[in-house]
Amino acid sequence: MIDLRLLRTDPDGVRVGLARRHKPAVVALLDEAIGIDERLRELTSARDSLRAEVNELSRQVGTHKRNGDEDQAAAAAEQSRQLGDAEREMAARFDEVSEELRQLMLVIPNIPHPDAPDGASDTDNPLCEGPVMPEGFAEHQRVPHWETATALGILDSERATKISGAMFTMQRGAGATLARALCQFALDRNSDAFEEIRPPSLVLTSTLTATGHLPKFADDAFAIERDDLWCIPTAEVPLTSIYSGEVLDVTELPIRMMAFTPSFRREAGSAGRDTRGMLRSHEFDKVEILALATAEQAPDLLTEMVGRAVALMQALGLPYRVIEICTGDMGQSHHRSFDVEVYAPGCDQWLEVSSVSWFGDYQARRANIRYKARDESGTPKKGTELVHTLNGSALAVPRVWAAIIENFRQVDGSVRIPEALWPYMRGIQQIGP
RNA sequence: GGAACGGUGGCAGAGUGGACGAAUGCACCCGCCUUGAAAGCGGGCGGCCGAAAGGCUCGGGGGUUCGAAUCCCUCCCGUUCCGCCA
Questions:
Q1: Which residues in window 349-378 of A are less than 7 A from strand B by Cβ?
Q2: pLDDT score, position A378
């Protein structure tokens, strides 16, 4: 959620900031929220002053009773009872308006960072690093991974569909080993700075709301309705909420965590796209890195985390590039965001293999993750501040898997395994004849 | 799933209808004392909303009452025992 106080003190600033997303509906929501908030504040003070009177009268009842003055006590009680009725009515109206405002605030997106590039859609995303299009591929690399992998017996999409329906994949033999090796590799490469976590893969509604996936994107997630649980679409979801409702000490920050988890996505809006191979599926494995930080620590962490995602692609020897996400293409919770893409010569596509984002305090406000600041002498400051959250995929398995199969396909149809993965491959350095 | 007992501030732990936003201890902060520290003494010390007055907050929600940490209902969580189970 964006800061309600900022909305009150600088509504125009917020309006200008959100307008950069190029979504007129968003600004309309904002204006609606401003109006509701004004009503809410009027109700608050009306309700509070009624409560203050009831409380004061109740105190008087006590005092009178202690003094043995029953008549006065009864009179005050009667008066208090009448005010109490009015208070209840006012409180009910407050609750109604308050919930209305909350629901609205939950769907208002984050304000883009001033340095985020302006743009209307993904075609405006500027290139930060790497080639527009890499060159020098041989004919034997121009084979889609699903053909190569099926021929090698390491991808069995047909049987995956038999088991679970469309948009599920299954790797076998060296292909399954490769998928797992990629995870192990990504975890090991980040274990210098990130605590490894194995979080739950099913979460409460409140957990999925904290990251911004609910209420707006309910259609994109798998729900287990009978038990009121959701399948996580990314490890970002459980990791972000690990410290929800807690007050951390600034000396603990930044907190860095990483996790290997399955990720479940309904892909409701993508029906019919990328239906072949491993480019898009309902379930895939991913290693995620995440940090909780102060506002001051966040920019450097963002750079570092993009660098970590890039370093993995370099170590694997895959052609990659980094693009920054423009204001019109950003996700709801994003403040600033970068994608790492690798090139897959077989299907001739840039594949998004990592998305690293800074969320400002947007998620922390939803999840209520705060910290106690300290001054120069180390004395705790009064009050608390919201942390900033950042996260990114270190490595999303299927697309990297696909890119490896295509980039390292040999003339004879076999696939060479990048040397960085050898320690995790049980001695397999090449798949195929 | 069944039963019993619990859930109070950073922690421990009192509090069974009114003077309780909450004793006491520990931790923490400021000051005095000290060469420095400890001890001692004095003071302070949760969070949220609000410009303030004031309001809210004793696991969540609802109820009884003029008034609820305290009584009632319900849900959640924890501990122990039983059942079941990988």
A1: 370, 377
A2: 67
The answer to whether A204 CB sits below 7 Å from nucleic acid chain B is no
Measuring from the CA of residue A61 to each C1' atom, give the nucleotide at the shortest distance: B66
Residue A251 beta carbon within 7 A of nucleic strand B:
no
- State the nucleotide closest to A49 in CA–C1' terms: B54
**Residue A380 beta carbon within 7 A of nucleic strand B:** yes
Domain ranges of chain A: 4-107, 122-431
pLDDT at A377: 64
Q: Cα Rg for chain A, rounded, in angstroms?
A: 27
Which pLDDT value is given to residue A167? 93
What is the predicted pLDDT for the residue at A272?
Answer: 72
What is this model's ipTM?
Answer: 0.83
Give the residue ranges of chain A where pLDDT is below 70: 376-379
A109 CA, B78 C1': Å apart: 37
Structure tokens at A396: 């999303």
The answer to whether A57 CB is within 7 Å of strand B is yes
Report the pLDDT value the prediction gives residue A172, as an integer from 0 to 100.
Answer: 97
Query: Residue A65, CB, less than 7 Å from strand B?
Result: yes
Correct CATH for A4-107 of 1.20.140.10, 3.40.50.300, 1.10.287.40, 1.10.101.10: 1.10.287.40
CATH 3.30.930.10 matches A122-431: yes
Q: Beta carbon of A6 within 7 Å of strand B?
A: no
Name the closest residue (CA) to the C1' of nucleotide B48: A383
Strand B contact at CB of residue A145, distance < 7 A: no
pLDDT of res. A316: 98
